[in-house]
Amino acid sequence: MPGFEFFGEEERKEVNDVLNTGILMRYGFDAQRQGIWKAKELEQGLREKLNVQYAQLTSSGTSALSTIMAAMGIGAGDEVIMPTFTFVASFECVLFAGAMPVLVDIDDTLTLDPAAVEAAITPRTKAVMPVHMCGAMADLDALKAICDKHNLILLEDACQSFGGTYKGKALGTIGDAGAFSFDFVKTVTCAEGGGIVTNNKDLYEKCDAYSDHGHDHLGVDRGADLHPYIGYNFRISELHAAVGLAQLRKLDRFLEIQRRTKKIFKDALAAIPEVSFRRIPDEAGDSATFLGFFLPDETTTRAAAANMKAAGIVPFHYFDNNWHYIRNWEHFRNHRTLSRLAPQLEEAMAIYKDKQFPASDALISRCICTPINMSWSDEEVNARAAKLVKAVNDALGK
Ligand SMILES: *Cc1c(COP(=O)(O)O)cnc(C)c1O
Fold first, then answer.
1. What would the CATH number be for the domain defined by 3-251?
2. Cβ 331 vs Cβ 65: under 8 Å
3. Catalytic residue among 38, 126, 144, 186, which?
4. DSSP letter (8 states) at residue 30
5. How far apart are CA 70 and CA 248, in angstroms?
6. Which pLDDT score is estimated for 3?
7. CATH 3.40.640.10 in the chain, residue ranges
8. I want to staple 90 with a disulfide (CB 3.0 to 4.6 A). Which of 8, 30, 86, 156 is the partner?
9. Which string of b and e fits 20-34 if b means at least 16 CB within 10 Å?
10. If phi over 0 gives left and psi between -120 and 50 gives alpha, with beta otherwise, what is residue 155?
C-alpha cells in the first residue's frame, strides 16, 4: 500500500537534481534553478495521468482540502455534508474553514449513503464531501445527481484513493474538485504533500494563489505579484515534489501489484459463507490498497481481529480505533479546539456530544479492513491468505 515500500534510485535521482541546484523552493529563482522545476513537472504529470485540466500541489492532503474549501467560498454559516467514517482531516478542514461539518451515515460501500445525504440537506448546505475510503470509491453517480438537483458543490476527498477510477474517470476528477494526500503512508508519497485537481479554471486560479499567500503568480518576479485576496502558505517544496515525481511513474506498477494480491486474499475469504465484502460501485476502478469485509456480528468481528493480529495480519477494526470513525472521536464530539469557534458554530457543534449513528455502527462494528502491502513475495501472499482464512474461521468457531 504505501509508496515508500518502493523508495529507491529513481526517487534519489529526482531529489539529487534539486540538491544539485540548491533551489528547494518551487517558485522563483528562475536563473539559479537551471531548468529544474519538480513541482511544475509533477503537476503536469498529474494532469496527464488523471486526465484533468488543472492540478495544484500543496504541503499536505489536509492543506489541499482546506485550500479547495477556501477557493469554493465555504465559510461561516455553511454546512458541509461528510461521512461518519473517514480520516480526522476531513472534518478538521471543514472547521478550519469556519463551516459546520454535518456527519451522515455510510452504507455498505463504507462511504456516504446517498439517501442519508439527501435527508441531511438544509438551506445552509453548501457542499457534499464523499471520502473514497481505503482505496475505493463512493457511489458518485448518485451523489452527483443529488448535488446537481440541489445545486451543491461535490468535493471528493480522494486522499486515500489516488489512482482509483470510477467508470473510467480518475477519482478526484469527477466532482467540482478533488484532493489527494501524498503523505508517507499513502499509495504515492512525497513524504508530505497534497494535490488538488479540478476542471474549473477559476477554482484552480484561486487554489494556486491561496496556497501561496495570495500571490497571483502573474508578476515578472515574486516581488511584482499582486494579491487579489488573503492566502496562506500551503506550498510543497521542490524536494517533496521530486520524490512524488519518481513515485508517480511507479503508480501503474503499484496498482497492478495491489490488485493481484487483493484478489488472492478476496478469493480465499470468499470460500467462507459468513463473510461478505464491502460493496464497490465500480470494481474495476478499485485501487486495491485494502480488502474490506464484514462478519455476522460485532463479537465475531472482534475475535477475528484479535486472531488476525496474533497471526501477524493487520486488522483495522475501525469500530474500536479512534482515528477513522466518529464513535471514539472525543475531541470532535466535544469540539475541543485550542481557540474559540465562532459562537454560531460552537452552538451547532453541540449536537455531536451524544448524537448516535446506529446505521454506521451496524456496519463498522462488523467490518475489518486489512491493508495490502506491495513488497510481499508470492509465497508470502499465499501464506498470509491462509492465515487470514484461519483467523476468520477460528473466530466463527469452525
Ligand atoms: C491522509 C488523509 C487526509 C489528509 O492527508 P495528509 O496529507 O496526511 O494531511 C485527508 N483525508 C483522508 C481520507 C486521508 O486518508
1. 3.40.640.10
2. no
3. 186
4. T
5. 27
6. 82
7. 3-251
8. 86
9. eeebeebbebeeebe
10. beta
CB 255 within 8 A of CB 163: yes
Select from 38, 41, 58, 32 the least CA-distant residue to 242.
38
Give 144-148's long-range contacts (Cβ < 8 A, gap of 24+): 144/174, 144/175, 146/114, 146/117, 146/118, 146/121, 147/175
207-227 per-position pLDDT tens digit = 999 999 999 998 878 888 888
CA distances from 15 to 11, 37, 253, 388 (A): 6, 11, 21, 39
Torsion angle of the four alpha carbons 285, 374, 270, 109, in this order, in degrees rounded to the nearest 10: -40
Q: State which ligand 1 atom lies nearest to the alpha carbon of 160.
A: 15
Q: 243 near 184, Cβ under 8 Å?
A: no
Q: Which residues of the chain have pLDDT under 50?
A: none
pLDDT digits (tens, 9 = 90+) for 127-158: 999 999 999 999 999 999 999 999 999 999 99
Looking at ligand 1, which atom is closest to the CA of residue 60? 7
Domain 254-395 bears CATH identifier 3.40.50.2300: no
CA of 163 to the centre of ligand 1 (A): 15
**pLDDT tens per residue across span 241-262:** 999 999 999 999 999 999 999 9
Whole-number pLDDT of residue 262: 98
* Known catalytic membership, residue 309: no
Residue 135 to residue 369: CA distance in whole angstroms? 11
Closest protein CA for atom 5 of ligand 1 = 61
Q: What is the pLDDT of residues 19-36, one digit of tens each?
A: 999 999 999 999 999 999
- Taking the centre of ligand 1 as the mean of its atom positions, its distance from the CA of residue 159, in whole angstroms, is 5
Intervals of CATH 3.90.1150.10 along the chain? 254-395
Whether the CB of 111 sits within 6 Å of ligand 1? no
The per-residue pLDDT for 396 is 97
| Residue 2: predicted pLDDT | 81
- What's the one-letter identity of residue 72? M
Collapsing DSSP to helix, strand or coil, 314 comes out as coil
> Distance (Å, rounded) from C-alpha 113 to C-alpha 243?
36
Length of the chain, in residues: 398
User: Mutation test of ligand 1: which of 4, 57, 58, 62 has the most ligand atoms closer than 8 Å to its C-beta?
Assistant: 62
Ligand 1 contact, 62 CB (< 6 A): yes
